[in-house]
């Protein structure tokens, strides 16, 4: 696993997942979030160990946490009367880290999984932390804030696109391209709704900058994802996986996921403790 990919995955494990769980406002998830370092720290350590028994054991610790998170999804679903679009996106966010964890355990043990090489497995880990967990979570939060047709479309298309991309791993490049189209459309809708929400951030320039950055970055990173999937399906020239990790992957991790969650954390704190009149953050 390359240094860049390892750093991106560490950000997902140690920062993005617990920060995202804190935004869901679910007491049961708060308990998992408090325990999360017990799983995430060994998972992060596994990234830097040589492939083998020690790395696999550390990765399995992370898999336990991811499975606990996924197991909460059916319990949350059982408490819900019908699944609204925002809830469907949030449920998807709870499940996707387990896909990343499965790929991580296989990659750290040095074994191919379902015919996928170690390189693809290594890239699957960040993909399902950011295009899976972070994307679905933010789409659900956006839909909570704007439950109109566009918000509901974003909350449904992002999980559906993520599922299609996963199916495309097994079916072929054209299915993966369809998933990329659906996911890109959904994420661009998230970007549009985020941009439209900027006035709601009031005079807090930091929050507005974080929201604007997350929206702008999505336009570029998802265009890269679309170009890569199109090239894989048609044979047209397209970026290499190394280039995609350095652009699409890093942009989604820092520019989209981290900025989007930081902004929503600030908005939540402002709602709980309003700033004094005339003061900006």
UniProtKB/TrEMBL annotation:
It comes from the Bacteria. The chain crosses the membrane at residues 6-25, 55-74, 86-106, 118-141, 153-171, 177-198, 210-231, 243-263. Keywords: Membrane, Transmembrane, Transmembrane helix. This is YndJ family protein. It comes from Streptomyces argenteolus.
